[in-house]
Design a protein that fits this description.
InterPro entries: PGBD. About 60% of the residues lie in helices and about 10% in strands. The chain has about 130 residues and is mainly α. A hairpin with a 7-residue loop joins strand 2 and strand 3.
Length: about 130
C-alpha cells in the first residue's frame, strides 16, 4: 500500500483516483486468491472423477453391452458430459466441425495410428 501513500501526496490526484486504485488492487488480490482455490479444487475433483470412472462399468452387464457398443466402459460418463455440453452451447447458423487426435496408447478398439501427427496413437474425436 506504499503506492497509495505516495499517490495521496501528489496534488493532482483526487480521492476518487485513489479509491479506484484501491478497488483495483483489492479485486486483483482476491481474484488471485480465488483462482488458486479453484485450481486446487479442480485438481481434487479431477482425481475423484477418474476414480469414479473406473468403478462405473458393471461386470454383470458388460458382455451384453460390449457386443453393441465399443464405448461401453465410459458410456454413462460420455452421455452425461455431452448432455451438459448441449445445455451450455447453442450453435448458430454457421458452425464448423473439426477433428482432434487425443493422445492415448492404451488398449482400445477404436484407437487410430497416424504417423504424421506429433502424437501418433490416439482416439479421433469430431
Amino acid at each position: 500500500m506504499e503506492i497509495l501513500e505516495n499517490l495521496s501526496d501528489i496534488e493532482d490526484c483526487e480521492d476518487d483516483v485513489t479509491s479506484e486504485i484501491e478497488k483495483h488492487l483489492s479485486t486483483a488480490s482476491k481474484e488471485n486468491y480465488y483462482q488458486e482455490i479453484d485450481e486446487n479444487e479442480e485438481q481434487e475433483l479431477h482425481g475423484q472423477s477418474i476414480s469414479n470412472i473406473q468403478m462405473i462399468d458393471g461386470k454383470d452387464t458388460r458382455a451384453e453391452r460390449r457386443r453393441n457398443d465399443k464405448l461401453t466402459p465410459i458410456r454413462d460418463v460420455w452421455e452425461t458430459a455431452n448432455g451438459n455440453l448441449r445445455k451450455c452451447y447453442l450453435s448458430g447458423k454457421n458452425i464448423t466441425v473439426d477433428e482432434q487426435l487425443v493422445p492415448f496408447r492404451g488398449r482400445c478398439p477404436f484407437r487410430q495410428h497416424m504417423p504424421l501427427k506429433p502424437n501418433q496413437c490416439g482416439m479421433k474425436i469430431w
